[in-house]
Amino acid sequence: MSYCLPVSDPTDLISWKALKAHRGALQGFSMSEVFAKDPNRFEQFSHSACGLFLDYSKNLITEETQSLLVALAQEAGVPQAIKAMFAGQAINTSEQRPALHIALRQPPHEAPVVQGEALGPKVQAALAQMERIVQQLQQRDWRGYKGDPITDVVNIGIGGSFLGPQVVTEALQPYAHTSGIRCHYLANIDSSEFHQITRCLKAESTLFIVSSKTFTTLETLKNAQAARQWFLDQGGSEACIHRHFIAVTSNIPAAVAFGIPEHQVLPMWDWVGGRYSLWSAIGLPIAIALGMDQFKALLHGAHAMDQHFREAPLEANLPVLMGLLGVWYHNFWDAQSYAFLPYDHCLRDFVKHLQQMDMESNGKTVRQDGKAVSYSTGPIVWGGVGTNGQHAYHQLLHQGTALIPVDFVVPVQSHNPVTDHQAWLYANCLSQSQALMCGKSRAEAEAELRAKGLDEAEVQRLAPHKVIPGNRPSNTLVMERLDPERLGALIALYEHKVFVQGVIWGINSFDQWGVELGKELGKDIYNQLTASTRPQAREASTQGLVDYFRQYA
Ligand SMILES: O=P(O)(O)OC[C@H]1O[C@H](O)[C@H](O)[C@@H](O)[C@@H]1O
């Protein structure tokens, strides 16, 4: 089924134009003032779904803004796009494929049929295959070449075949399975990383998962070959490779050619994008580290968010609202980036997954119809764990010249309570959103300095530096605790938010042609670095840098 976006240029839409005018009218808008006037603002601009509570009241919005943004979603065809995604239409138009990560977390009877093929049984068969491997490992039935049980699993993969599984495994560490199998991630083509991981491993008790949708990714193949050689050097033999290497890929022949028996190749499909694939067999290291039940709970949480996304009215639909707020700041307030600031050690690396999910999906300058966009698309995503950022880059959030909307995420309960740490952590999170919104006026700064007994000259000298403009927007996502279901829902929330924005911008969120050029050029440059005689580079800068390498290599 081919897919056609309902609109091409969002700036032509009536709601877009109305939002532009509305933005102008909001020039002197003060969040603090509207909070003071409206006792219902928090209730009005907060919603919960799937165990997540979203407070978006600290945003530069009014009731009218929300209505106009929802009208934009309607006019841009977000409801039709959601339907198209769930129906398995080829919403990845440049590659003419559906984007069906949602099918990976659907109960079998709900999964769509694509080109006459029911996806449910395929997904369930892959889950069953994962479960068999997980059980064999956890029950110590999977033995290495010397008869030892597996103690360490190394996931060799990069991009979507790395970030999602790594971030989830880390975030759900408190749910680690009692088998205690350690999961490591080897992604970069950097011998230091290879060395750092392999030096603590024993070949006889290590299992490598070569995780690559295409099985053509340079970094992954080089690392897989190096791992294989390391295994042989440590005493393993070719005949035992199958006990120590499995693969997850849609390119079965390439995995088999590498030496992995076909029955140890878990499937991937072209209807799942790499950055949306942690829900598939690419998530095997998650299941090994946490157990299959927790992996299924993660899928369950994501499915709950899928249902919410599909069914909730736009004005109470978390991914839609967050997507619309992102468009509001990006296109109408010139915010170039947003910060993701989780107040939870378990989510310390989450932003890395979010960066790939958002920036690889929506970092596009061409619309689905092949025309160049005349407006800004994908934002820069950055961030890190709170409260560490408060002692570093939050200065710029509070007093810098750029407007940077923030997503705060904080659970109420810690998995590892220590005295009253969690209340302090939660308080720090709230203090940041409050400070961003309320700021500190000149009068408040002066009063504060006078109260300290400073003379008037000192008060006037220091006061301008102490002023904090405030009126800076944020969302706060809170939850009882970060468990597999809620993490699944949180990731799915951001996946759908990114999709909503892609639909509004008229771009395809599911391809990534931009990453290809560097890969192609990399091969030429590698040949230049290793050529026997001085090669001719394409331009003088690269020539000089190639020469430098050749001088010292
Ligand atoms: O899973 P693979 O085929 O090895 O791909 C790994 C990654 O590399 C590509 O270059 C893409 O940018 C990513 O979207 C993808 O996840």
From TrEMBL:
Q: Which SUPFAM superfamilies match?
A: SIS domain
Name the enzyme's class: isomerase
Any single Gene Ontology cellular-component annotation? cytosol
Subcellular location(s) of the protein: Cytoplasm
The name on file for this protein is Glucose-6-phosphate isomerase
Q: Where is the signal peptide?
A: none
Q: Which residues form a coiled coil?
A: none
> Keywords in UniProt for this one?
Cytoplasm, Gluconeogenesis, Glycolysis, Isomerase
What's the main place this protein lives?
cytoplasm
**What family, per the record?**
Belongs to the GPI family.
Record-listed E.C. numbers: 5.3.1.9
What would you give as a GO molecular function for this chain, any one? glucose-6-phosphate isomerase activity
Question: Which reactions is this enzyme annotated as catalysing?
Answer: alpha-D-glucose 6-phosphate = beta-D-fructose 6-phosphate
Kindly identify the residues recorded as the active site. Answer: 360 (proton donor), 391, 519
